[in-house]
## 1
Amino acid sequence: MSGNHHDRHHHGHDHDHLHPYDPEHHHPHRPDQDDTMTYYRLMEEAVRELMIEKGLVTPDDIRAEVEAMDARVPANGAKVVARAWTDPDFKKRLIETPKEAIAEAGHDIGPMKLVVLENTPEVHNVVVCTLCSCYPRWILGIPPDWYKSRSYRSRVVREPRAVLKEFGTEIAGDREVRVHDSTADMRYFVLPMRPAGTDGMSEEDLAALVHRDAMIGVTEVSGAR
Amino acid sequence: MERDFTARGHHDMGGLDGGEIDRAEHDYALWEKRVDALMMLCTNRLKLMTVDQLRKGIEALPPEAYDEMTYYERWISSVTNTLLERGVFTADELGAKMEEVRARYPDGVMPGGAAGGGC
Amino acid sequence: MPRFAVGDRVRVHKQFPPTPPSHIRTPYYIRGLSGTVERICGAFKNPEELAFGRPGTPEVPLYRVRFRQKDVWPDYDGNEADKIEIEIFEFWLDAAGDGA
């Protein structure tokens, strides 16, 4: 929730070279996040500096953590999915020993305890955390805003089919929908079904079809583009 | 079915009617990533706190604050409180540092968050 | 040793912990209901203790319990077979013994 996008026109006016300032037609300007200091941003800066001054962390530690998180992106998960689609032995290992299998694919999931949920013609899986926002961040990165929203967290456990429909996903009435609420120490990763019409595609091309939302389970992977 | 317990936490929202899902997303700002980084360091490396302490701090927010604050605002608020409780720094140290930081932004500091998304 | 095995019927405690502030990982909507143990996840430190900076030991068995959506939401209008699965710590569970 980000209330106040307006009323912040105090910064330099480089853009006025393009548009001479006219208060009558001044378009509402959404400031860059970097030029808007807020109370909690200020708190972050203060706490970070105190931790550094006390020798608990270094600026480099922070930078390295940010970079490590930036490197955790859905494309990593997509590669794992594509490999599971093309290599049945890998898929078996992925389901039985996810940490080791994902390490084979080149990604370290750290201390995360992962459960891989395989979608089948009989079962569609979808993941939520109703109590906070638990997410397989070691493989997919930071969750999208909607995953953390009150609307998604409250509704998907009770009316998963309606929520899926909002994401454009219609699950056949005779197919079971299974919702997974991440309430404790496990994290969940959906292995989507391989779409029809993709026979003979390379692992790399298959990976390009797989997107984040399919690994959360709110969408399915559609066929060749 | 009688589920007659009377209280549920504000954060414990499974099954309520949350309205339509807003699927707009924002790119995380550097300060938000730094909050995330600080939390990772405090839990995994420094063992100064646990993720359950982070959650407890967030759950203790008044409902209005919980709904109004952005995701990483809730995090930094909870992390800061836990580090204060643990004596990693004192309230006086934090107050002085916040004044020092505030002085770097002569245009002022907005009360809430504009760099946002994702409550 | 875990008290329950895969396939056992279990019932989630119904109470709300009496003395807030507390921190629990058993959502409101599932309390008092019966389900089936889907898997044993292992043993983990107790989050209700960890939240207060205490050690959280001894570790507690954690289960994934599967519920029929029709049992959770009386007005559920999806497929009869639809399920919801939730992780629940052992101290929140009793044997259901109801065949339900």
## 2
Amino acid sequence: MENSPLFRSGHTACAGCGQAIAARLVIEAAGANTIVVNNTGCLEVFTTKYPDTAWGVPWIHSLFENSAAVASGVEAALIYLGKKNATNVIAQGGDGSTGDIGLQALSGMLERGHDILYVCYDNEAYMNTGVQRSGLTPFNTNTTTSPAGAQSSGNIRPKKPVPEICAAHGIPYVACASVGFPQDLSRKVKKAFSIKGPKYIQIHASCPLGWRHEANQMLPVAKLAVETGLYPLFEYEFGVLAGRKQITPKPVEEYLKTQGRFKHLLNNPEEVKKIQEIADNNIKKYNLKLES
Amino acid sequence: MKEFIEGSHAIAEIIKATKPGVISAYPITPQTHIVEDLAQMVANKELDSQFVNVESEHSAASVVLGGSATGVRVYTATSSQGLFYMQEVVFNIAGMRLPVVMTCANRAISAPINIWNDQQDSISLRDSGWFQIYAEDNQEAVDFHLIAYRLAEDKRVMLPVMVCMDGFILTHGMETVDMPQQDKVNKFLPAYKPLYKLDTANPVSMGLLADPDYYMEARFAIQETMRESIGYLSEISGEFNAVFGRDYKDLLVEEYQTKDAEKVIVAMGSVCGTIKEVVDEQRAKGKKVGLLRIITYRPFPYARVYEALKDVAKVAVLDKAVSLGAYAPIAVEIKAAFYGKKKGPKVVSSFVAGLGGRDITLESVHEVFRRLNAKEVNSDFIDLKPELLKEEYGE
Ligand SMILES: Cc1ncc(C[n+]2csc(CCOP(=O)(O)OP(=O)(O)O)c2C)c(N)n1
Ligand code: SF4
């Protein structure tokens, strides 16, 4: 990975970490006049092992679940200092810190109308503590706390709809992006910063360690999630669906077979069918299918 | 200027005079009047501040953490469950060396739920790296907030300060308070100039991961700062006295009739007013009794306690908190102050009183003196109702 003055390489992420690439894309799109507030999680740990830091912008970490609230304080202080218009504020964290333990702080930040972009790096589990399920772990995923076994085919619940929960706050902008589509990701971050008020972007970020795929497969795996309809890339403006990335849907098996976390499903067509239904519902709900 | 004023209102007025740029709090009795007043001041444009209405205490503490890290003076207030809900952030603020000032309007802890005063809430957070300063009356509560900001923002310190005041007894009590004038406040407490801050012109990273090679030194640094701050407190209170014409000495302890005393009660907060009355009454009868009031509970002033009590025969420590399964919190410190020393009291007995707002009357204090005899007691509860114990537990 090339060096960037805002997000330097030399951090301690696993090889092929999608979150590392996504974070660099986000901060480059946001620019140097940005303050970043980070929850606890992989990104925080692998970028700021004292005395080193990968960040070329002002950056602060407080706790696992409070980046939305700390960022609210940063924004309030910038307004007080008369510096808000010249400064972007990003609050960010993983899917667990965002959608589970930090959901209340996130909702508070959105409801209060702070001019902050919240970025959720969705690697679909608690990776920093060793691949436990989160509310955003997909249905039937094998994790260390939703293990597949004789009685179970993995995580029993579908992904928590955090983008929809955010959109229901009526905020100006909500988007899903993927590290598999870097240009789309950058465009969405830039678009978010062209809008005043609270914004939420959720980025699907592949994790070779937790998903169990080869480090060099980060981009194709992430792409397949979008192309099967399992990770739809849509945009909401003020609570109304305003855009989506259309696809020629591929069968979900193509995605599932790339990763060890779904390996137990491949001789279980019943369970694969349930996952295909989730993709089909997404395709219908967000009108993802390209007209041929 | 002397004003007859409610405690909470006086606190809001003094906070206004300190000009915090970010205020955030979440309602909980008996702290609410303070932040309601501040919200009104911001609404009236009397106070130029960002008042952030959060969804929880965890976020209130996080907001002031973020504001302070961005280089702005900040304020929050809470009580009881609210303080407990903040706890994770409270420790974090100290670890990040941010000069946050908070009022704790002391209140009992659930369960059973109870809104009245004791000191269990703040005392439970004694190990967090915050200074804890306890007021006896509303004059002190007001003055201590000014001292708190000076101390917290002192470049040698850079640690948060909790000003503790007994809920209802002080927060809702009407008293005459000599309110510090704005020009004097400006003189004593200049605008906040941060040592480090989040600033795009000079990017820094804050709150990094420290592995075993680095973590201990960060904690040691706080421990050392707290130790040294005992001296800074005397220095700052001296300056305060010069500007405002008060007589706070070192702000660590208050010695009331302790010089030749044979029996001394050690206590903290507003109950000391009641104890002083009893001491006066007993002294009038020729009894050699006194009071040692702890003002600063963290850092704990061991040396001052030792000096004040080394020649006293019998000491009764009156705690408005318990450490369930152990000795009461202040009692432990008093015993520690004499451990391994040549001189010291023959008897250090520990009493627990006033939990959940039970009145500590003049008679309660008399009873403490009466029970203070040759036999030491530990965590002896005063004013218990045996008939209720029978009902509850079928003794
Ligand atoms: C209050 C609290 N509970 C639990 C933890 C332990 N913890 C740290 S990071 C983490 C998981 C992070 O998962 P996620 O937010 O999805 O980020 P990732 O590491 O996957 O990028 C957990 C459980 C903590 N630090 N604080
Ligand atoms: S565990 Fe996953 S998210 Fe964490 S650093 Fe490794 S690849 Fe990245």
